[in-house]
């Protein structure tokens, strides 16, 4: 593209804009949709070659998608793509997620949740608050554990690096069944039952799509060890909510940490919990903030902007999303 028109659909501060401008090649022009009136929005959408979006359903009105007649590339700020309205986006548009942009802080969050659950930190804190002092309550060692990492992309690899420091064995699952990383087992979703049976800890960092929706249900939970730890930092719908709650109630030594929720503001505008997870002693939750550390949005903007640059320059791009995995 000799002259590329880039339309940013979400609000950016000046520092984020500066990163975007610095990364793009000469000849690129920019429009920021949140700063325009209705008439100007229509004009820039009609001339957009690239959309840079975070949450398209909330940033674009339904009647604005047909205006995207020139669009060639949609770059997401988010690492996931399950919220994208694929049927509204013209066929032929390349869609890319921001894979790996949040990997390191999310990996730390995974490890923190696993350690907190293994050492029963929240449970014992609450006991102390009620005057109960049990110095001899047994906790669980994480060192030497078998860790299943279901979704061995940027987050999964970063988590594996931390667990290997504790002497853990890594049982990884990805789409190809191959990796150059140091693992003790690598397979695909066909091997899910095996890795769940074998592992002491299971981490969900896989993309949510039509194949992985409700990936972990009653059957999968029953395959796991009675004292296993399950942590989900990806998307809530990977797990059957009712099945998980029932399993936690009926198996008090089984533990779970959830960062992504079934009903939360990003997708629905509100937070709602259909089951009282936070009342369980073998559960810990966080408000989908595993990536939220200082400077993370700036780094994500820079990472996504580099992908846009590569698209403009006809270089290989990361995180291309297959529509057929979601439709």
TrEMBL record:
GO MF term list: glyoxylate reductase (NADPH) activity; hydroxypyruvate reductase [NAD(P)H] activity; NAD binding
Signal peptide range in chain numbering: none
Assigned keywords, A-Z: NAD, Oxidoreductase
Cellular component GO terms held in the UniProt record: cytosol
CDD domains reported for this sequence: 2-Hacid_dh_6 (cd12165)
Domain D-isomer specific 2-hydroxyacid dehydrogenase NAD-binding: 111-289
SUPFAM superfamilies referenced in this protein's UniProt entry, alphabetically: Formate/glycerate dehydrogenase catalytic domain-like, NAD(P)-binding Rossmann-fold domains
Protein name, entry field: Hydroxyacid dehydrogenase
The species this protein was found in: Desulfoglaeba alkanexedens ALDC
């Amino acid at each position: 593209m000799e002259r590329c028109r880039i339309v940013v659909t979400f609000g950016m501060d000046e520092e984020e804009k500066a990163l975007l401008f610095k990364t793009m090649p000469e000849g690129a022009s920019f429009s920021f949709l949140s700063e325009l009136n209705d008439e100007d929005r229509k004009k820039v959408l009609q001339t957009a070659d690239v959309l840079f979006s975070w949450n398209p359903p909330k940033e674009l009105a339904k009647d604005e998608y047909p205006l995207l007649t020139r669009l060639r590339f949609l770059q997401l700020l988010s690492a996931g793509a399950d919220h994208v309205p694929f049927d509204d986006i013209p066929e032929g548009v390349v869609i890319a997620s921001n894979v790996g942009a949040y990997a390191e802080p999310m990996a730390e969050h995974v490890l923190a949740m696993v350690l907190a659950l293994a050492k029963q930190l929240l449970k014992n804190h609450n006991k102390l608050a009620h005057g109960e002092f049990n110095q001899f309550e047994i906790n669980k060692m994480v060192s030497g554990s078998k860790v299943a990492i279901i979704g061995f992309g940027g987050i999964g690899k970063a988590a594996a690096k931390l667990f290997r420091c504790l002497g853990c064995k890594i049982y990884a699952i990805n789409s190809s069944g191959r990796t150059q990383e140091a693992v003790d087992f690598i397979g695909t979703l066909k091997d899910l039952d095996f890795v769940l049976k074998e592992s002491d800890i299971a981490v969900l960092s896989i993309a949510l799509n039509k194949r992985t929706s409700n990936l972990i249900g009653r059957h999968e939970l029953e395959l796991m060890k009675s004292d296993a730890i399950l942590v989900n930092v990806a998307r809530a719908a990977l797990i059957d909510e009712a099945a998980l709650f029932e399993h936690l109630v009926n198996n008090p030594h089984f533990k779970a940490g959830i960062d992504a929720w079934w009903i939360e503001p990003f997708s629905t505008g509100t937070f709602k919990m259909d089951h009282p997870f936070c009342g369980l002693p073998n559960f810990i939750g966080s408000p989908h903030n595993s990536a939220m550390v200082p400077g993370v949005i700036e780094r994500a903007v820079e990472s996504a902007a580099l992908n846009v640059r590569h698209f403009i320059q006809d270089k290989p791009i990361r995180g291309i999303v297959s529509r057929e995995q979601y439709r």
